[in-house]
Amino acid sequence: MFKNYLKIAWRNLIKNKVFSIANIVGLTCAFAVAILLSMTALFELSFDQFHENKDTAYQVYLTSQTPRGAETSTSNPVPLAGALEEEVSGVKRITRALSEDALVSYKEKDLDLDAEYVDAEFFNIFTFPGINGNTNNPLPSKNTVSITEETATKIFGNTDVVGEVIQIRIGNEERPFTIAAILENTPANSSIDFDIVIPFENHPEYESNKDVWNSQFHPVYLQLEEGVTTKQFEENTRDFANLHYEGSIESDKRDGALPDGNGQYKQFHLLSITNMHFASYKAGKADVARTFPYIILGVALVILFIVCANFINMNIALSEKRLKEIGMRKTLGAVKKQLFFQFWMESVIVFLIAIGLGLMASNLLIDPFKTLFNTKATFADVTQPEIIALFVTTVFVITLIAGGYPALLLSKLSTLRALKGKLDLGKNRLRNGLIVLQFVIAIVLITGTMVLHGQIEFLRNKDLGYNKEQVVSIPLNGKKNSYSVVALLRDELKNNPDIISISGADNNLGRGRDGSLSSSRMGFDYKERGVFTYTITVDHDYAKTLDLELVSGRMFDRDFAIDSLSLVINETMAKQLGEEDPLSIRIPMGDNVTYSVVGVVKDYNFQEVSKKIQPLTLFMNKDWDLYYAYVKIAPNNPAQSFDAIKSVWEKIEPQAEFLGSFLDENVDRTFRREKTMATIITSGSVLGIILSCLGLFAISMLVVAQRTKEIGVRKVVGASVSSVALLLTKDFLKLVGFAFIIATPIAWYFLNEWIQNYASHVPLSPLFFVAAGLTACLIAFITVGSRTVKAASANPVKSLRTE
Fold first, then answer.
1. Which of 618, 641, 658 is the last residue of a domain?
2. Rounded CA gap, 206 and 96, in Å?
3. What is the pLDDT of residues 220-252, one digit of tens each?
4. Where is the MacB-like periplasmic core domain (predicted)?
């Protein structure tokens, strides 16, 4: 019996080649894309899940009630970790950690590595196993370090290097360190990524800040004792916070800050390490949003839904051609069970073929896919037992529906009606409902694509307040003093007519090729009220190089030796200070040193483009290092100028890698995730529309076949081709119109929520929604119209002979 089912199923697939190919192609594309997208989403969701202590390990963050509202900080003072462990109950282990670049030298080789400055307990909280050396305690003393396998291979060519001595630049000096252990490479799904681990006490800021509570610059992680909850820990830290931040609390209370619901002005909170990758901080709390992977997973699911809806609709369409076969089977005694198994078997064969082809296609596309979407996901992310079980169950249910529904529909027909080939599906609610759902999804995706691309273009073309097209930023990752490097660049490039000016700063604008994106912030009292400001240490010609607009006063000038005690502020900072004449401001900052404001620059986006512009103060103090050089070039020949800069760099710092990039590239990298999301949703929209149209085409074939005689009669009595085509098409366009009505408020709600994450954004114009609806209608009209026009143009004599 099973063999007969299989034979008949195969014959029917061969007989209906158009439908079979359409089904297999659609399912293959959907499966291939769904596998790749699911792989990416599951990889994102797996971040930091590999740590053995993930259920009890947390990152510490502090919420402060300020006159500006609740603010959060993950940066902490150096003495905090030790004080928490000693004074607050419930802490099992605690560690400080700070990610920075480190220049490592061995013989004639220099490497700029991602370093993590940590305490020894770091390895007892996080799971980063060792493979060689002192694996139980990778940092046994202050003068030891541990490196990853990949780093060992880069430096030495092998991993058998425990006991070797390397030189690491700490501040302005090189120090020798002994390699104590070789660690496994950090997993691709780890929020903490490093090449080398260095004891925290060696950080250049450690000694000067080890007893200072108002200098905050590093994260703190801890593990709670068994049975201690995060709520208990937070309650236990309230007295601790009131004691150690007493001065700051009094200052905030003086300036009008209001306490939280528990009467606290400072409250420590814990964020699970499994949530770090997805966390942002709003209104004093950590907001954990897995939006990006869920959107990717959602796109994969809707593509599968669309293609499965098509599959069901096409099976119904095919049923029209098989009515006499069904009638004959029923005459000969076939029962519902046999009809069901026949249709189900055909569905299973199509799905198995499509799954096999989909796996092959996804395997062929995985490398370009990973490059396009900048992901490190692998097939291992989707070959987990639970994922495979879910997939098999889903396929089983879909094939049951796709094969069982037509069988159920047809089995209800009387034998006589089936033999006559009569099947009235004109009011089929399931079919119409599936078409509406398909186009609701398609319209939402099209609208999302338009808004996403509109927002990206808005950010890309926004006036940031500085020249991003002509300025190259270069990380100062070599051995020489940073001011010396900037001076050497000026000297070497001064005769190049395409080089306009050169400067430096301690932060980058946008995200450079070195991956860095950082900012510094400080607070102080001014006229008995607290103010805060972001800070940037700069060199001469900073405003000239970036084309910053000076509102009043002057920039730092070589003719003024006192500029080491001068400040330049932005307009937002000037408003915060509240003086009618900002140039009259004098700010005392410890040790009886007073700084004077000498200039005000127009606000510019010194942080990510999506953020609101904050108060900013520029310093020029050569005791503080620069980390980036800026070179402004003439617009006529940027490629040649870039090569000239690179050549000079290789002469000045021959051992350091040149990582220069234009600022517009840096800015683009800050919304790389938005671009990835836009690419995914665009691809999903295109594929969704194509697959929806395949189903629509199949249904239009069914409807035309059912109304062939009616078409012939209308043609005979004088109906035009256009009127007949419109008659056949309008029912489908009504469904698309209904889908537009449903999709528009859904799309508006989600897109409106999304754009609120940006301080400035593209207006959510009705044109986005109208354009999406018209696009869907046009595509549906072309799809259905191509079939209906052909039917309407046919010879009416042939149409009347169909019975």
1. 658
2. 11
3. 999 999 989 999 999 999 999 999 988 888 888
4. 26-238, 521-635
